[in-house]
Automatic annotation (TrEMBL):
Superkingdom of this protein's organism: Eukaryota
Compositional bias annotation for Polar residues: 101-110
Name of this chain's protein: Uncharacterized protein
Originating species: Perkinsus marinus (strain ATCC 50983 / TXsc)
Keyword terms: Coiled coil
Length: 122
């Protein structure tokens, strides 16, 4: 993945959250309007109720879509973060192994046996 992908997903998530907050506020207003309508049985009144109920249904459907999109964006961000952590862990493991190998190379006994006492023969 590109270095810019996590930023794009975070920005998408922020935008979706802003839209979700706006829709929830709108839904509260629509529901307040619905509660304030006094049904007098007139055609005009029925039209207002139908309109408000349609707006409520549309807002609920859109909220559900946005929540699903946010969950998808968060899953993508989590997967990318996990991948980056895994890659960093592999890099550290490789670096540690190379460091151990370097230490083994520098601390290995000399190949010539000068100065080493021969083992006694019995």
């Amino acid at each position: 993945t590109s270095d810019h992908q996590p930023d794009l997903h975070r920005e998408l998530r922020r935008g979706l959250r802003r839209e979700l907050a706006r829709l929830r506020r709108s839904l509260v207003r629509v529901r307040e309007d619905l509660n304030n309508v006094i049904d007098d049985g007139s055609d005009e009144n029925s039209q207002v109720l139908d309109d408000l109920q349609g707006r409520e249904s549309a807002a609920l459907a859109r909220i559900s879509e946005i929540e699903t999109s946010i969950a998808g964006a968060e899953a993508t961000i989590d997967a990318e973060r996990s991948d980056l952590v895994r890659q960093a862990g592999l890099a550290r493991a490789i670096q540690a192994r190379l460091s151990v190998e370097d230490q083994n190379m520098t601390s290995s006994p000399p190949s010539d046996r000068e100065g080493v006492l021969a083992s006694p023969k019995y």
